[in-house]
Structures are given as C-alpha cells and as structure tokens.
Amino acid sequence: MTELQKAAERTVAQALRLRPGESFLLVTDKPKLEIAEAVAFQAREAGAETTTYLMTETLRPIGAPTKLFRGLIEGADAVLYMLDARIEEKPFRGYMVKAGTKNSRICMMPGITREMMGRLVNIDYAAMGAFAKKVIRKAKDAERIEVENPAGTRISFSVKGRPWHNDDGDIGSKGKHGNLPAGECYTAPIEDTFTGRLAISLIDDKIGRGIMDFERGRLVAWKGRGIEAIVANIAGDPTGMIIGEFGIGTNHAARVCSNMLEAEKAFGTVHFALGDSYGLGKNASKHHYDALVDKATIRVNGREIARNGHYLI
C-alpha cells in the first residue's frame, strides 16, 4: 500500500471506525479528490455505504447547505469533510459540525494534503493521547492559566468547571467530532475571566500575524491583515467576537506552517478561537476562527508546564 492508502485505511478503520452497513457521507472538492478517492475505497472495503459529495468551484464560497444536502447529512452515520479551508465558509463548516455531531459523528479535514496524510495521520495515536491526558490532568479546573510568548502574548483566564476534550483521533462513536490530523486537547475559557493580549503568528488559514486584545472575554482591539479579514467576515455578529476555545498542541509530527489544521496541533503551540465553544462554554456562534500562539509559556495556578515552546511535564 502507498502512504496515502495506509493513511486512508487508518482514517476509516481507526478514526471513524466505519462498520458494515453504515451510511458514510464524504464531502470533498477537486483539489482533494485523490485523497477522497483513497478514503472512499477504504470505506467500501469496510462495508460502508458510501456517498461522495463533490463541491464544485462554481458554487463557492458556500454559505449554507441546500435542502438536499441537509437530507444527506441527517441520514448519515458518519461524515468526513475535506474542503479547502476558506474563511467565508466558516458558517457552513459550523453547520457541518453541529449537524454531524447531532445525527452521527464527523471528522473535519479542512485543507488536508496528500503529504499531510502520510506524515500526520500514520502516527502512534495511543502515545499522543496519553500525553494529552497528562496535560489535561495538570490544567483541569485551573483557577488561573497564564500564557505568554516572546512576541508579546500576555493573557490569563480560568477554566474552572469547564470540560476538556482530548482530540486523539478517536471519532468512532455517535456524537464524536474531531480532526485528522489529530493532536490537541482543548476547552473553553470562563469568558469573563479572559483578559489580556494575544500576539499571534496565524489566524484561521494562511492569514496572520497580528495582535488581539481582550477584555472579559470579548475582542476589543486588533491589528493585522488576517484579523481584520476575520472581523470583516464576522460582520458585526457579537457572538463572533467572544472567546470560544483554548487548545494545546500535542502532535510531535506537526509543524508550524500556513495550514491551521496542522499548525494548531504542533508541540509548543497553543491556540485560541473566536466564536463557537463547541458546547464547552457559554458562547454559541456560526463563527469559529483559530488563532495560533507559538513558543508558548504556560503556567497553571502559578506552576509552569511549558516554557518557550518546551513542555516541562
């Protein structure tokens, strides 16, 4: 088997754990068609009834699902999304996540490439998941988490009482939602405790550096081309300006790059998202934009667990 075929098999058998007779919906576009074909083949080999939905370029950017598409996702047991990542399509991606977790289980792979499949999907998920559990044990129910980096990040917040999610590649049961490549643990900050500055190297996909200032969970000032594009896309929706996620990268093979799907998984990075909290916090929104902070120092209740991008646990 080629590296792509091995990664496709792992996607089907170990992540989604497709079973004979299940209905599987695969949403793709032309740049991802080679990957989609490999996954569809492995899904058929697993005995799943597979439907591939090709999003043509003439219909993009897509803002909302059609009536026919709603029927497809509502009837699926498992869903895989691998469109090229575009900020204008975040509301559609948000719909996919909500509908996929409500009716089935969903794997999100926005911006995935063949090279990433081979390097980042064929990994030791057990070891990665075990490390993430160590991070969660240190940070769970923390009254105060502080994050800093050399670029100027200075932010503090509480996660007291908030649940954590370990994105360890297991998307095999109803209601599950995860990424491939996997490799993060995340929660939602207590919104009104979230105050300070983020100096980011990337926001969403391929656009970033900039500064984001928060007061009591709300973005109040910003600078940078990427952030300005995000705020313009939010278009005055107040739910899109509220902090929704704090995540910690746990995938050794991931690198800081222009693809957020990979960059947010990289060791030594953290990320924060504006908008929807995926049910982990109070904020519900059609928006969700990840912002990357690299070379992070993380303190939990005054004790360092990472310094300048290197873990101390």
Report on the architecture of this protein.
This protein folds into two domains: 3-119, Thermophilic metalloprotease-like; 123-311, no CATH class. It contains eight helices and 19 strands. The radius of gyration is 19 Å and the shape is globular. α2 (33-45) links the parallel β1 and β2 (49-54). It has an eight-stranded antiparallel sheet, with helices on one face. The protein has a six-stranded antiparallel sheet with strand order 7-9-14-15-16-11. α1 crosses α2 (33-45) and α1 (3-15) crosses α5 (114-121). By secondary structure, it is of the alpha+beta class. 27% of the residues lie in helices and 28% in strands. It has helices at residues 3-15, 33-45, 67-74, 90-103, 114-121, 125-139, 225-234, 260-263, and strands at 23-28, 49-54, 78-82, 106-108, 145-148, 154-157, 165-167, 177-179, 184-187, 195-200, 202-203, 210-215, 218-223, 243-249, 270-275, 288-293, 297-300, 303-307, 310-311.
Defining traits:
6-stranded antiparallel sheet; 313 residues; 28% strand; alpha+beta; 2 domains; 8-stranded antiparallel sheet; Thermophilic metalloprotease-like; 27% helix
Helix-strand topology string: HEHEHEHEHHEEEEEEEEEHEHEEEEE
What shape does the CA trace take?
globular
* Total DSSP E strands: 19
Which structural class do the helices and strands define? alpha+beta
Reported for the largest beta sheet, the result is: 8 strands, antiparallel
Q: Distance between termini?
A: 37 Å
- Cα-based radius of gyration, to the nearest Å: 19 Å
Number of domains: 2
Strand portion, in percent?
25-35%
| Low-pLDDT segments, ≥5 res | none
Total helical segments: 8
Strands in their spatial order, largest beta sheet: 13-12-10-6-5-17-18-19
Helix content: 25-40%
Mean pLDDT: 95
Characterize the quaternary organization of these chains: single chain
